[in-house]
């Protein structure tokens, strides 16, 4: 299903990994994807603690003021927002980073905030739901919640960057996962995330 322009919902929770959220959003806007963003209370604290944002800074997340126009921020307390309805057409939802708390709430059908509600609606409408989980180690409850969500149609994408492209910077690790996430929602990018790129490099 395609809408014009393309739409993707992005949710940010309080798990560490704000750089992943910023990179994913900037890549989506660079690809001219309309982003509908919701940030939990702990997600706002995360943006402050890890990126120094006193508020949700759309310019900084999108990669500039021009691209920020593609981002709509929805209040996480507003369960009547458009993204809370199945009639809101979109091509998928990405929760990055996804905390174990959010993982458990969605797996249990709990919708105490807009992010959880949007995720529940995404599942019921059989659209792509990507949970980029960023907590370690996993306890047994986390594993059961992942299984339950996977059986319901969600994709669990732990933020575990590969090392086979021999990353030199933290940004290389972030790009690896950001690229993988974009692959899952069918958004093109030119990041170096492919195994064949390593094979080509070794043959040179």
CATH structural fold name: Rossmann fold
**Tally of individual helices:** 9
Q: What is the name of the CATH class?
A: Alpha Beta
Computed over alpha carbons, the radius of gyration is 16 Å
Overall number of domains: 1
Helix content range: 40-55%
Task: Please state the second-level CATH architecture.
Answer: 3-Layer(aba) Sandwich
Structural class by SSE content: alpha/beta
Structure description:
This protein has 204 residues and is α/β, with parallel strands linked by helices. It has one domain: Rossmann fold. The protein contains nine helices and six strands. The chain has helices spanning 18-30, 41-51, 58-62, 65-68, 100-107, 114-124, 140-152, 170-184, 195-203, and strands at residues 7-12, 34-39, 71-74, 93-98, 129-133, 155-156. The chain has a six-stranded parallel sheet, sandwiched between helices. Strand 1, helix 1 (18-30) and strand 2 form a beta-alpha-beta unit. Helix 1 (18-30) crosses helix 8 (170-184) and helix 5 (100-107) packs across helix 7. The protein is globular, with a radius of gyration of 16 Å. The termini are far apart. The mean pLDDT is 94.
Q: Could you name the key traits of this structure?
A:
single chain, 204 residues, alpha/beta, six-stranded parallel β-sheet, 44% helix
Could you provide a short overview of the structure?
With 204 residues, the protein is of the alpha/beta class.
Write the layout of secondary structure elements.
Layout: E1 7-12, H1 18-30, E2 34-39, H2 41-51, H3 58-62, H4 65-68, E3 71-74, E4 93-98, H5 100-107, H6 114-124, E5 129-133, H7 140-152, E6 155-156, H8 170-184, H9 195-203
Parallel strand pairs: 1-2, 1-4, 2-3, 4-5, 5-6
Helix pairs in contact: 1-8, 5-7
């Amino acid at each position: 299903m395609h809408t014009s322009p393309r739409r993707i919902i992005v949710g940010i929770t309080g798990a560490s990994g704000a750089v992943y959220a910023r990179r994913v959003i900037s890549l989506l806007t660079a690809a001219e994807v309309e982003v509908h963003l919701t940030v939990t209370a702990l997600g706002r604290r995360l943006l402050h603690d890890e990126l120094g944002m006193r508020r949700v800074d759309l310019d900084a997340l999108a990669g500039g003021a021009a691209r920020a126009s593609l981002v709509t921020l929805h209040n996480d307390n507003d369960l009547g927002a458009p993204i809370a309805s199945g009639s809101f057409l979109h091509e998928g939802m990405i929760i990055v980073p996804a905390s174990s708390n959010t993982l458990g709430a969605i797996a249990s059908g709990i919708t105490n905030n807009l992010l959880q509600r949007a995720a529940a609606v995404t599942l019921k409408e059989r659209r792509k739901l990507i949970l980029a989980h960023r907590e370690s180690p996993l306890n047994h409850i986390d594993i059961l919640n992942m299984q339950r969500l996977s059986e319901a149609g969600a994709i669990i994408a732990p933020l575990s960057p590969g090392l086979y492209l021999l990353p030199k910077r933290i940004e290389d690790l972030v790009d690896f996962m950001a690229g993988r996430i974009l692959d899952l929602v069918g958004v093109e990018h030119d990041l170096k995330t492919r195994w064949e790129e390593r094979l080509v490099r070794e043959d040179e």
